[in-house]
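User: I've been trying to design a sequence by hand for this structure and keep getting stuck. Would you show me what you'd pick, starting by listing the structure so we're on the same page?

Assistant: Good idea, let's start from the same input. This is the structure you sent:
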C-alpha cells in the first residue's frame, strides 16, 4: 500500500481525477482518497514513483510519500 499526501484536492471531481490518473495505467488499482486529510492510499502493481508522477501530472502536487511493506 502506498500512502500519499496530496495538495489541492477539494471535491469529488478531484478524487475522480486522481483515481482516473492512476487507473489509466493500472485499471485494477484500488484508490482511497480522504479529502479532509488530503491523503491518498493506493494499492497497485505500479511503482511508487510512477504513481507519484501520475498524480502530479493530473495537477495535484504530492507533498509526502510513504510505502507500507506488509
Amino acid at each position: 500500500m502506498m500512502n500519499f499526501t496530496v495538495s489541492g484536492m477539494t471535491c469529488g471531481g478531484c478524487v475522480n481525477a486522481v483515481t482516473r490518473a492512476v487507473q489509466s495505467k493500472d485499471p485494477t488499482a484500488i484508490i482511497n482518497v480522504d479529502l479532509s486529510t488530503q491523503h491518498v492510499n493506493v494499492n497497485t502493481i505500479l511503482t511508487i514513483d510512477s504513481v507519484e508522477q501520475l498524480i502530479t501530472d493530473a495537477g495535484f502536487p504530492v507533498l509526502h510519500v510513504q510505502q507500507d511493506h506488509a
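That's my pick for every position. To get oriented when you compare it with your attempt: The chain has one domain: 2-67. The first helix runs from residue 12 to 23.
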